[in-house]
Design a protein that fits this description.
alpha/beta, Rossmann fold, 2 domains, 9-stranded mixed β-sheet, 5-stranded parallel β-sheet, about 25% helix, about 25% strand
Length: about 325
Amino acid sequence: MSNGILVFIEHRQGAINKVSYEAVAAAQELGAGTGQEVTAVVLGADATFANEVTGFKLAGVLSAENPKLADYTPDAYADAFEQVVKQRDPAFVIFPHTYLVRDFAPKLAARFGKGLVSDCIRMKAEGGGVVFTRRLFQGKMDADVTARGEGTVFATFQSGAYRGDQAERGEGAQVESVQVEVGEVRMQPEAPFQEVKAAVDLTKTEIIVAIGRGIKSQENIALAQKLAELLGGDIAASRPICDAGWLPIDRQIGSSGQTVAPKLYIALGISGAIQHLVGMKNAGTIVAVNKDPEAPIFDIADYGIVGDLFEVVPTLTEEIQKLKG
């Protein structure tokens, strides 16, 4: 009988990928809903990275080790993880939805005759099973998905679906080093995929002030920039602003830009097209300012101000300055 939950901890370029902590938060929620313990799995040449995740509330940390796992290859990772799954027979294996995972996880799931429930945004334990929700058609529709048949369920979670800082901390998670066999590695790793280097990584920002068409001109961006600086946050934008060249492309939020989940997201003059919403709707608190009371952005905003941003933002900035003394 399958039991327990495994969560994959990805590391690359000498560091753990921070979205792995989001996967830990997802796995912990799943564990709470199903009454199962969570064990982290790290693949590598040694236990270096496994020792870095012992501070979370976990049943343990499994370090699957082989010299061929020093650098990522889909062959080696699939071989190693297959052995882990066969040994542990988990009910679920949870992954962050990254380029690396997208490369080897479908291959791993196929070895067990299973599909991969990918790019999930949430889940719910009900009726003895788990319903996963994933987005379709660039976020225009949500689909509830359940896995058929017996055996392990493999699922990935979209970046921003959970917050890494929501992962419950704990003490005493022990590292168990296990030597795994890896067969022929047919591929030689090249330099890892790199997205266009951004001047700022908005995924790490806790406060974002984003502007849309309502800002009217490039000169008016200073208004929003002042608010962002006062709050200790970063400026961002919807696609039309970046297409116009008013802000660099690395400031774009949405389906063709960055996906973020800050603690606070202030949307100024953004109507709320679905392409933008999919990039920021998982923010902790969303504040929207727009002249149009029917703007779609208000459907997901926690706080909405129907008004002219050129009147609202200076007043808001002034009041925050008073509070900061």
